[in-house]
Amino acid sequence: MLRRAERRCAAGPTTRARCRFPRSRATVRYVYPSPQPEAATQATPDEFRAALSQLASGVSLVTVHDPDDGEDVGMTATSFLSVSLEPPLVLISVREDSRMDEVLSRADTWAVSLLTEEQKALGSRFAMKGRLSDRLLFADAPHHRGPFSGAPLIDGALATVECRTEQRIAAGDHTLLLGRVLEATVPDPGGRPLLYFRGGYRALG
Phi/psi at 193 (nearest 5 deg)? Predict the structure, then answer.
């Protein structure tokens, strides 16, 4: 059995300690068990969706002109954010293997229009799954073409940006596109934004 002084030394927090005893000098070594790796965990899709629904986001319309068939493609997006001021960079997220993802893999320029609360119907139309043709949707949406991207810019939007893809990044079931802003305009500085919160469109205030 260890004497009292030896027991106090053995209980110390260090992995190696030198202890002095009345009649001898001893070195005590401690071996601690290696920590066991925790089991990998992740939130379920429902948990993740419920948590992120508490984040209010602006609603925008991402547009691109298909260089192959000359058609315009649009997508309602809440995952649009600024990345850098110098150089001016933004980021969008598109679903992998979607029509938008396929066109953006071939077209290097695209545009984003930030929607107002009066453009809620437009945002809903371009968010529909299985819609027949974006051509019909653009026909009903007043717009003009961006001089740098050739993509539709929505008339009356809060702001518009035209971008050139700098980088494509695979991220789970989505593709992230980092874009350099070629031109940015604010057609309606007094407009009110369309927001998306808790699974539905909202108005500010």
Answer: -75, 150
Structure confidence by residue, pLDDT tens digits, 128-140:
887 778 999 999 9
Examine the pLDDT at 6 and tell me if it is beyond 50: no
- Phi first, then psi, for residue 60 (nearest 5°) are -135, 165
Overall pTM surpassing 0.85 (yes/no): no
DSSP 101-123: HHHHTT--EEEEEEPBGGGHHHH
Quick: pLDDT tens for 39-48: 668 989 888 8
